[in-house]
Task: inverse folding
């Protein structure tokens, strides 16, 4: 780096302890409430950044996730300070194609802490802050018992004093990993210039590099999904025309970084 | 009730939907980081409300817990709105005796939401608000793997801009349910009068009525525990002279309410 | 007090530093967004606890307030730790009569911290936790300038992931203190028993004892008010049939405590 | 912009409503607790990014600020949704020189919401999230009265469960605008690459373009300042060797953007 200070990102500092995010690889373990749905194809097409193209299947995913994340640099972060390592997230992923390759892009995504917000922007996940609530179905609660058909789970997203999304799942039967849409992300990295609001300093189409992807405890679910309007959001334009289904599962993965497919600016 | 409004507690309302807490029974499932320690016996004795007496073993427990709770009235609360059903808690329990019977009292306890704070006051748990952080060791995180000897867990308590407590555990070996101190609570219910600050409207010694107590996944741990001073707290007077050990475990239980042992006012 | 521990309320402690609230008198300074409105008279009557009776004028107030509060015991609390002394609040007050005397009762009220929540319950304000947002119109902001006719102010209340209320004010002209409804509160103190959910330990009708009431900077406003439905609230039953007007003002006051008018249990 | 989506920053969207920040100009009004101090000159020099050089006076500023901010694009934001327009901030500014020109750089800064965090990164303010508490001395509180000599004010900064900074001021006498250090900022814009952690995509030295700077209500204060250590911060390396003084004042300003002085990567 061309400065005397240390760090993967701001705030650079003399000892390199202050930056809000460690460099990749980043390692994740999480529990996911997933709704698979079809938005209005015209609205889905509108959120795809050129040169991404719509996918004929027209699917979208809504995820509520509770994550524990660490890095190679600080693999014990979940112990050293859990607050720096754990967060909840809500994202909508829209199916797309890039030069014939299938994948998803993420137009809207919310989290509840700073390290994950900035780590998102670095990758092209356009994270904003919110309150994210998810059912933690504790099997020892005498009224809840173990996960089994009939158990219901909910995810709620609220930001700037407004409920934005609500996903409702009911476990039907154990599912198979093969049923899960594979998250393969084509993302838009964007960072403004400070001296020209119309010409960004960074504008890149990137593909996430994900390894060690493992799933466990997959449940197939009935699902309902609701988006709410807000002056500060456009999420509800992607409201479901059809809900295909839902899943509850755990996953682990490593994000090594990303590959820049195209410089768009 | 002698009023036209409905509800177990405030705010009473025409339909009975507004009260912040449902009546008991209340059902809980949670994951616990526990440190067993010995505070200064003189300080432990000072926090016991008459007529509770010190216990010769002089033990105390520090618990960090992540709970999912529901009631008979709203057994599906964890689904209907997770935010109304889930919370984190940190408490210190001090060994004591009541008329020869062994148990614990809880002088200090913090939670992160209103329904559990009020439900605590109703039972004699003197809950205040705080931020509570606990390691969620996700087994699918490629850097974390399954719970096993050597895994480290942390609990951090912060309130009014100050860290108050930090518990650090390292899993040593699977433990036995029999090793766990049985939480049997003698609590002080107290509610002020509005017209006489020196004479409370409620002052009762109560014993919690707990049923359906089940433990699972008990781990014996090495433990460290630190309390920090604050102008607004007296927790650090109970700082450990000796740490006996730690445990990580899950539990479920039902609280039916309490038995009033003595009216003290 | 009949115990060895010290404090006005829980948690009682050896030195008396731990209790979440100091005894009265309590001293307040705050800025208020007020909407004066008429709910459905049948719904207004339903929220009045016996023996309070409806007032023929049928008015109600919606207040958003940002408070700084201290006590005689800790008059420097706003300096020692601002977090223990400052909070935002949203309340609805409904006009009523008690034995011919005019006043207001407060069926629903939300705050954003523990000390004020418990202090409310002690007085008969049935406070719950929420996020409260209010316009702080800073006169030095080059786009805002000083308070003057045309300036707009907003209050937003959100709890458990749902927006509950929104008040919108537009300053019309300087107002007079005489235009302001005098808040004279008849409140219901209620605290459950732990051994009998149907018979509360405390059930009292009280009148607040307020002194040193001063108003300043009164503005008369156009106002709009919206309540939103929620499964966990009944606020929207009091939605305005007619909005009479609004005010923005600052006030200061001392609450000495309350007078118990009747024991209702 | 080279994409079909609209917006000054992420998340770009079809209608341009979703981005977390509007483009400049941005307009601010705020109340500031300021401590002027001298850190260890060696530590101050260490935080200056090349090519910034130390200033012989060796001063630093600690600011606690409560801001109301809007943009040209949404000048009514403080009314439309106060939560999107208001925040608290804590920053440390270190005196420096750039090619002989005097100014300050900001190595560390914390805020409590997303729009201001991202707006900071865009300008070169390396913002992280925190809880910021500041005394709001309300003149109508019967125990507080108007601002006058002897009034005490406090700022407290807490992040990831640890108190990081505490500023204590006591008003001495009315001050003069001329006494205030002029904040002229030389900032480091930095944004990582996604495909090479060692070579940032953006590394620029910028100078903020600030207009409409106005001060009001300046008070000269006695001051104390304390920084606390943290594994995740290096703020306490800048702890005061000498506290020169403090001020309390209000200010307004417009930030038009910034001028890129040098590309450093």
Result:
């Amino acid at each position: 780096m061309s400065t005397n200070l240390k760090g993967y990102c701001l705030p650079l500092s003399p000892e390199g302890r202050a930056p809000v995010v460690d460099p990749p690889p980043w390692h994740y373990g999480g529990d996911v409430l997933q709704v698979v749905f079809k938005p209005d194809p015209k609205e889905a097409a509108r959120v795809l950044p050129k040169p991404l193209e719509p996918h004929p299947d027209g699917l979208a995913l809504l995820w509520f996730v509770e994550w524990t994340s660490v890095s190679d640099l600080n693999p014990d972060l979940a112990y050293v300070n859990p607050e720096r390592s754990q967060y909840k997230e809500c994202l909508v992923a829209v199916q797309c194609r890039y030069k014939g390759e299938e994948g998803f892009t993420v137009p809207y995504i919310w989290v509840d802490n700073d390290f994950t917000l900035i780590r998102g922007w670095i990758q092209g996940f356009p994270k904003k802050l919110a309150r994210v609530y998810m059912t933690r179905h504790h099997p020892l609660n005498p009224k809840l018992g173990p996960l089994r058909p009939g158990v219901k789970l909910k995810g709620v997203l609220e930001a700037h004093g407004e409920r934005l999304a609500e996903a409702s799942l009911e476990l039907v039967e154990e599912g198979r990993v093969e049923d899960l849409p594979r998250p393969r992300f084509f993302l838009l990295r964007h960072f403004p210039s400070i001296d020209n609001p119309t010409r960004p300093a960074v504008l890149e189409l990137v593909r996430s590099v994900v390894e060690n992807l493992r799933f466990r405890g997959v449940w197939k679910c009935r699902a309902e999904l609701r988006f709410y309007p807000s002056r500060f959001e456009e999420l509800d334009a992607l409201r479901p025309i059809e809900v295909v289904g839902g899943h509850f599962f755990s996953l682990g993965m490593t994000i090594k970084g990303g590959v820049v497919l195209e410089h768009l600016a």
